[in-house]
Amino acid sequence: MALDNSNETFREGLDELAGHYKIILSLLGEDAGREGLLKTPMRVAKAMQMLTRGYEMDAHEVLRQALFKEDYSQMVIVKDIDFFSLCEHHMLPFYGKAHVAYIPNGYITGLSKIARVVDIYSHRLQVQERMTLQIKECIQQTLHPLGVMVVVEARHMCMQMRGVEKQNSITTTSDFSGAFNQAKTRQEFMNLIHNNQI
Predict the structure, then answer these.
(1) How far is CA 150 from the centre of its chain?
(2) Is residue 46 a contact partner of residue 10, using CB atoms and an 8 Å limit?
(3) How far apart are CA 145 and CA 143, in angstroms?
(4) What is the β-pairing status of strands 147-156 and 107-109?
(5) Per-residue model confidence (pLDDT) at position 3
(6) Contacts of 36 (CB under 8 A, 6+ apart)
(7) 31-55 burial, b if ≥16 CB within 10 A, otherwise e?
(8) Active site residues
(9) Could you tell me the pTM of the whole model?
(10) Phi then psi dihedrals of residue 24, to 5 deg
């Protein structure tokens, strides 16, 4: 791990990654030696390591660290979890909100840990569909609840900046298990996440 002046810790290979970005700048037609670009390769290398820090984190362990026995069996929802990720096809950002619900089966977890799970899976090269599935499976496998449901709503820069260039499109994905296989339970969840009242 390398350490920079802001006390952030970076993974091995940072210098090599910066070297590759210097080559990329040249291949794009830029002068990598001009003043404005001298520090760019290292800045980009650090940014990419930060944006992919989820590879070094275990989402299951995050939930296990805050597991509490509790006799509560109603829906627990953490909604409007902001996230930013990188599309694995073009390495352009996609971003939005994740909404997560689970129905406890003897155990609950700290509410902030649900947001951490989203953070871990979003900080990898991703596709929205896989990220949605990974969040659901992590909670299902670790908490063993009566059911889990995840809805992710995102804007994709690969659609907005290139290709079809549709700036206002939003992609929604969902996955669910257990009690959420019942349409009534899914509808209750959808009603609650779209209700802006506290």
Answers:
(1) 12
(2) yes
(3) 5
(4) unpaired
(5) 46
(6) none
(7) ebeeeebeebbbebbbebbebbbbe
(8) 87-90, 128, 156, 158
(9) 0.91
(10) -60, -45
| Cα separation values, 63 from 11, 127, 128, 134, 198, Å | 24, 23, 22, 14, 25
CA 118 to chain CA mean position, Å: 5
Look-up: residue for tokens 């619900």?
101
Strands 107-109 and 67-69, sheet pairing: antiparallel
3-state secondary structure at position 35: helix
Q: Residue with structure tokens 């989820």?
A: 54
Indicate the length of the chain as a whole number. 198
**Structure-block tokens of residue 86:** 């990188």
Predicted confidence at residue 168, as pLDDT, reads 77
Q: What is the DSSP letter of 146?
A: S
The stretches in the chain having pLDDT less than 70 are 1-7, 165, 197-198
Rounded distance between C-alpha atoms, residue 134 and residue 95, angstroms: 17
The model's pLDDT over 32-48, given as tens digits with 9 standing for 90+, comes to 999 999 999 999 999 99
